Every structure is written in structure tokens, then in C-alpha cells.
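Extended Data, panel c. Modelled sequence:
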Amino acid sequence: MSKTTVTIGLASCGVASGGLPVAEEMEKLLSGREDVETKRVGCLGYCYMEPLVTVIRDGQTYVYGKVDVDVLHRIIDEHVDKNQIIKENLILSDDGGFPGSESARAAKQVRIVLRNSGLIDPQKISEYMARDGYKSLEKVVKTMSRDDVIKEVLDSGLRGRGGAGFPTGMKWRFARDSKCAEPNEANPNGTDKYMVCNADEGDPGAFMDRSVLESDPHSVIEGMAIGAYAVGASHGVIYCRAEYPMAIKHLNIALGQARIGGYLGKGIFGDPNFNFDIYVKEGAGAFVCGEETALIASIEGGRGMPRPRPPFPANSGVWKKPTNINNVETYANVPWIILNGAMAFSKYGIGRSRGTKVFALAGKINKGGLAEVPMGMSLREVIFDVAGGIENDRKFKAVQLGGPSGGCVPENLLDTPVDYESINATGAIMGSGGMVVMDEDTCVVDVARFFLAFVQKESCGKCPFCRIGTKRMLEILERITKGEGVMEDIDKLQNLAAQIKDGSLCGLGQTAPNPVQTTLRYFKDEYLAHIADKKCPAKVCGDLIRYSIDASRCVGCTKCAKACPVSAITGELKQPHSIDSALCVRCGLCKNNCPVSCISVE
């Protein structure tokens, strides 16, 4: 009988869901067995079902979700030992029998960036090598010229996955053609150049890059090394925010293994002119450092503030050396493209948007997590087929794309294809891939206020339009959500938005008004309800709602009073209770804890 492999996902989502005790129990129970191998792997993407345990036997894979220690015992006793599938917890299988609840979601995906995530131990280079790891780097060094590599990336149609969507191959060509201070005979353009990976990922609700770095760090390292070969760079920097400790740990382990294996360092694959190494720079969590020039300033030890362009980083970047910057997802695509060919990649997608896109699915959906889908799939398919639709059978209201720099797309635009140009036409942006879904109980005015508060706080302060303009917009939104808005506020918001877009230096300021502009464009009636009627239609804004108890239905169970954090609810046991509106903070805990649904919001 062939060996059985049992894995458990221990990326941040798996650990947060209680995966560590399950992993320890799994290793304790299966330790010493010659017929079973255990592995700790990364994120498979089904984050809402964590902890995930996978059983692999005779080439067939079975994925179990929501595994606690008791379920683990059943998996080992029944599946591992007796080959009996546990249908209650099985979410995915490829045996042609019981496919599991996630089969439809899996069928919609094409895993290129996530090809190894959740399948390999990210701390073992041998597992990456077993899945064609570093074969692409070997191919480019031994059989391809720098022009060949750049042409292959250009032909693939790969565009920057950090949000701007600039053609990756063209960006590499600019860096290759840029002269630096120390040219030599072998490389007349010089070798003192930088390849930088932007792993800052500051959007609320986004976790694509973190998951890839935690689950498959070598794919990013290999992609950077291929890019370094193409542009003639000798220095590499991965700029990763310090709030990602597991990603940083796995990166540093992988970098050490790559050096030992000869995939980083001097004379890579026997080429004496190809010397390249990478180090990790930990960022302090400033959202503005996702902008290229601010990121460069932070790498150099300065305050993360943008500068005017030109010169562009390709000509003057880190320490004024030619620098290429791409994000995690962009680099992770590159080894697959080199190994499989540009045509294999470009067959996915539509128009100028080729390949796949990884999305972090969050918000009011049934199946949150990571998904990688072909470009061109509609928002409706992503939200209702891949993400499982709206939780609790509520009605869809909007989806926020592109984080604080993006916008809200309403229901009537759900058939918009996921590609750069189509998403931009809605007023939102693709961004790095954050997708936050909202239901009918979401107040879009409050959402706009939340995102504007975020960018206002994260503004570096260099531009008056961004520093002061976002503050004025936030003040107006706060007044509106408190019922103190006036009709003139609508025009003020639109005028301020236009000035901030035109007057700000970097992308943070230029896109800061997007959430306000898109909500005004598609949900203006909700703004008018807050201003003219002093009502919040979604019953979210605390100053515009009131909680009350229907005395005829209240059973006096006291659960609402016990849940109230400010003791605003009074009443005797088995007697009707009441809420003091002057004390009530509108937290909603009473309503959530009422067993007979006698608490209403007006």
C-alpha cells in the first residue's frame, strides 16, 4: 500500500481558527507510523472552513473542514485506517464520488499564483523543488537571453497585480535599458540595480500577499530572481509590513535555503555575471508606503513620503539606482509563465487583461477566503458562485473593490467582467484584489466615512490637498451620519473630491475620494435620506436610530440586560424590560441576544 499523507493548514487563518492544537494532536497520533506522512502546509483558500485537514492517498485528495481534535480522531480512525470517507466534514475531493460542498467553487478557479498554496510545507525547499521549483530560473539562465525573458513576460500579457495594471514586461524593459553608475564589459547597462517586491498590502480586507508569502515564499523569490536576470539587477528587497510575522519568518527561512541551494548569491546556475541576493525590509505599517516612491524612501531609512515623478524608479530608485518594483502576486506568476509559456497564461482573460487574479473575499458572504479566477469572470459569478452568495440570505447591496482607493459597485453592475478597464469604468479599481461585499444592512454613507477616515489617518501630510482636503470631507461625512448634514454638503463633497484628485502628489490622495464619489454616484438617495429625513435607511448610524422593546412580547429573560455594556436596560425577571435611550449606545448587543426577537430598531 502506498504511503498516505495527512496535512493541516497553518497559515494565519488556520492558526487563528485553532489549527495548532489539532496539528499537535495529529503529529502525536501519527508519529512513528511508516505508512503515514504528516505535513504542516499553508492556506488552501477556504479560510471560512479552517482548520483544514487533507488526506492524500493513491493520488486522490480529500479535504476536511472545521476540524477540531474530535473530528481529527474520526479522520484518522475511519479514513486513514479504514479508508472510510467522513461525509459530514468533507468539503472537497477528486475521487469522482462525493465531491464535497466546495466542488463548484474549485471548478471556477484556475490556480497559478496559488498553485502550491496549501499543498506544500512552506518551510521546506524540497517540497517546492518537487513541484518544479527553480526550474524556471534554471531555464532562463541556461537557455534564454535577457530580451527573451522580457519578451516572454510581455507576450503573456501579465500586468502589475498591485493595482495600477502596468504591463510587467514593459516595466522590466525600462529597468533593463536604464544606465547605472557602474557598467561593465559583460553587462554594459551595469549590474548595480534593484529588484523590489512590494509586500506592504495595507488595504483593509486584503490578505492575498500575506497568504502567498506564508504558504509559498519560494515562488516570489524565484520570480524576483528571474526579473533580476532580465533587468541586470544584483540587489533584491522584499518590503513586508511588520504586522505579517509569519510571512517574514517563512521568507527568511526560504531565503536562507535558496542561498544554500545556489539560487541566490554569486554565479547563479554557473553564470559568473549573474549575482543576485535578497533581504527582507520590515515596514512600520504605513499605508502610504504602498506607493513606490514612499516605499523607496522607507527602504533607505527615511520617512515614507512620496516624491514627484519623473524621475521614475526605473531610472532613479533605491539609492538613486535603477529599480524595478512589482508586488507579491506579480512575481509569483512569473515562474509559471516561464515554465509553461506565454500562450498558456494569456489564454485566460479578456482584452488587455490576461491571466488570473487572486481575490481576498470578505464581508457579508457565506464563503470568505482566497480565490484565484480567470480575468473576465463577472462580479456576479465571483460573489455568488465562488464566494457562496450573501450570508443569512440577505440581499446584496454593493461590493467594495480596491480598498480605500477603490469604490462601491452596486447590484445593477454585477455583470461587469473582472478586468482592469471594465472595473475602472464603474468608478472603482481592481486594486490589489480586496473584495468586501455588503448586504442590505450596510449603510454606504458609513462605509464611505470609514474608508475616508482610514486614508485621512494614513495621509503622510505632504500635500495640503490630501492632508486638509480629506479632513474636510471626513468632517462633512461625520456630520451627515449624525443627522447634522445640509443639502449643500453634497456639492461640497463633490468639489473637494475633484480638487483632491487633481492636487495630490501620489495615488493615495488621488484616489482617496473614490469611495465617496462612487457611493454618491450610485446611492445618492441614501445620502439624501440622512440629510433631508434625518434617517439611516440601513439602521446603522447610531445618532439616527433608537432601540426599543415590545413589552407585549418580552418574556423578561434578562438576556438583553446582561448583554448591555452600559446598563441601559432595566426590568425584573419574567417582567417586560425597557431601554433608556439616553444611556443606550446603539451597539446592538441586546437585539442580538434577544431569544424572542422583541427588540426593534427605528
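The mean pLDDT is 93. This feature is highlighted in the accompanying rendering.
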